[in-house]
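Blackboard transcription, Thursday session:
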Amino acid sequence: MSAFGKQPNPQLNGHGELQHLLTIEGLPREMLTRILDTAAPFSEVAEREVKKVPLLRGKSVFNLFFENSTRTRTTFEIAAKRLSADVINLNISTSSANKGETLLDTADNLAAMQADMFVVRHASSGAPHLLAQHLAATGRDHIHVVNAGDGRHAHPTQGLLDMYTIRHYKTDFTQLTIAIVGDVLHSRVARSQIHALTTLGVPEVRVIAPKTLLPTGIERLGVRVFNDMREGLRGVDVVMMLRLQNERMQGALLPSTQEYFKSYGLTPEKLSLAKPDAIVMHPGPMNRGVEIDSAVADGGQAVILPQVTFGIAVRMAVMAMLAGS
Amino acid sequence: MPVATHLPDAEALCAALADAMRPHVDPAATALVGIHTGGVWVAARLHAALGLKIPPGSIDVSFYRDDFNQRGLHANAKTSQIPFDVEGAHIVIVDDVLHTGRTIRAAMNELFDYGRPARIDLAVLTDRGGRELPIAPTFCPHSLSLPAAQILALERADDGGLSFRLIEK
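(Written on the board underneath:)
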């Protein structure tokens, strides 16, 4: 749910350009397609002797990570550096937040240091929206906000890099059956994936999970729900695995991780029910032997490492589009 | 300034440009790099006409433009492709129309991110004037003077034929 209610999309400026990237929900298909199209030429930059283009020269990008994430922070950092921006990493869970400084106070201080962009990861859903609202209300809407994952709400760049990966291998979204498997309840990644897939016209999006790991009313997002993994994987083109969010698990939602693996772990045997050319994706970090068998994770159908590489190009595209808006 | 009523014949200029370049290129060692989009079409013609061995490269200068802060990122940026080793190469940058020189500067900046060429030349079909940087073509069979409000654009028909069109800004 957008913190802005029914207001015009706060992610777009008056010219319809991307001003912030807070969530995929509500972005038109043309915008998603444009981001994916823009990412393609950025992926070539990594092949050069000098893996840098000068677009964000002189701009300061602050990575504000109120929650730990090595991979996401690193890929944002590489993306910003390949755009020639100056990057400042702040792991705030170990910094001022412990001294009681709020998100907005932190941002105000960094804005006073001439920040041009905030990349925000926060445990509270809506934190990046709040920041964007605050910047607009204080006349600093030239500063752009990228949501790098907020609570259970959204992780839009992960959703976009997943779409880039699917388009790279499968070309046409309108011909695909795609299954999202695992801990949907706690997953901001799953929400971003579902919004992106339905916006891009995927005719059948399946969600496979035990009842205890499904949010109520998930069907309203336009997905088919399966509690039986074998049934749900039959004939799919893409299997998108989710990480079992152990650290978010409160109470006994599952009997044990071994039990979970038996029912919902992706093994070669279960994968064989999907189309023979199906690809397997995972946002990382993987729990081997919990949601995915090593034979699948390291197998020929896995595109998990290409996802990481594509993630840099997609984040470059997003940051370049924001900075140029 | 008189308005150009007769636009140059793009096909004839392609042939004239190839003739001008022929004595100065080594078919085994000279590499062409066309600038998207018109320059890529011209580079393909020159590559065939001159019988060059090295496949032509293409550059989209969207990531190197000097007006990014004013105009943002171009909506349809293409992937640059340089299918040869730039280090020590003799490269001819190919574009359709030379105007301010800013695109050529951006293209040279981009090329240097692939390596250090031994030499760069510039080949264009026509020079329409209006330079804003100290850049001059090495090979240029035609020139005309156009008011700043007009854009001279190269177009390609379905049958591959090239022609010029004048667009009012």
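Lecturer's comment: Chain B has a mean pLDDT of 95.
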